[in-house]
Design brief:
Strand content: 15-25%
Strand order of the largest sheet: 3-4-5-6-2-1-7
Helix content: 40-55%
CATH architecture of the largest domain: 3-Layer(aba) Sandwich
CATH superfamily of the largest domain: P-loop containing nucleotide triphosphate hydrolases
Radius of gyration: 29 Å
Largest sheet: 7 strands, mixed
Shape: flat
Structural class: alpha/beta
Amino acid sequence: MNPDRDTIAAIATPSGQGALAILRLSGPRAFALADEVFRGPSAPPRFQTLGRILRADGTVIDEVLLTRFPGPHSFTGEDTVEITGHGGRLVSRAILDRLLQAGARAGRPGEFTQRAFLNGKLDLTQAEAIMDVISAQTELALRCAQRQLQGDLGNRVERLRQGLISVLAHLEAWIDFPEEDIDPETGEQLNSRIHSVLGALEELRATARQGRILREGVPTVICGSPNVGKSSLLNLLLGFDRAIVSETAGTTRDTLEEIINLEGIPLRLIDTAGLRDTADQIELAGMARTGKSIQEAELILEVCDGHLPPGPTAIQAPGGTIHLRVLNKADLGIHPGWTLDAVTLALSCLTGQGLAELKAAMIRALTQDPQGSTDDWSIHVNARHLQALNTARDHLRDALNQLRAGAPPELAAADLRSALHQLGEIVGKTDIEEILDVVFSRFCIGK
């Protein structure tokens, strides 16, 4: 614990009225400040004590429970105090003001977790996982965030680092002691070992899509001609009437957005204006927004009138977008001109016929797994990790090219060291002061 570090204080629970509010103190003077503002019996560490928080004039602010956590055996690794009082903006703010008056500094967003990282209580991937746990929208996202919080991703990156350290040590021994004839096939073995690290790195890179989906949701656009049942499909997937359904063409003139949980995968459903030829300026503006949503979508549900013959489509889906065709009004029969397959499915928004099959097709397409399994989603990287992995991959490829070209081995060693630095940035085992503010700026105050 750094004795020169400020002691910080913050409200750790959301602002507003509630049963309880929790405030936290962390730093070298946490216990002394608690003694100054709190009156109650003494208790051993990690035991709650009932007492009162007093103003400087001795009047009572609130009756609270106070718990002391001596460092280094605390969340931050420093002496930490948690105060549990009555919920409400006024009383919790009054307690915080009293702590600041006594000498604490207001904690910045994420500063408690940042101190835990700096004190070696968790690596950087675990620190980021805390925010993923807080913001998880589905059980799957929460389960994956908990795995990362337990260190699964950090351990995997650390194995990559150790493998690369071994390769670099071998190469530098070859450079420094050529007379020792370390291995007559050193070059070939190094190529193989670098390829092995590169393969494991590529496996991690491939998980970035899963991480983005769990954190941000899948932009899912429901589109098609007017009166084919787009809004009805939105309501059916949501399980309640969110959009107005009418036989009048052009009822939906703007995009509507809602989030659903599809077997743990969050979908951002976007109902759009029908696509048709019109001179109505409001409809044209709505269709322009439809086109923009389609270009930004990851999953497109094109709704068609299944009992009518197929017609030309106005949907111009970008490459790589998942495109499913939903033949609505299946209760009226499917026209023989349609062919049902893995991406063209029959549905009746009126009766719900075909809904389970549509959901299963969506899950298979999103998981890219025939069984729709998300078992391999437990470890995934975020955008910061991906950037570091991309740079590390480039350096590893450069090192391989140097070795193959017969260049001085010092050049390959420099690239390997750069790749090692990038992997270290993921878990925080390098000089990364410049990225800490970026990582922790997403956190709420008090965490």
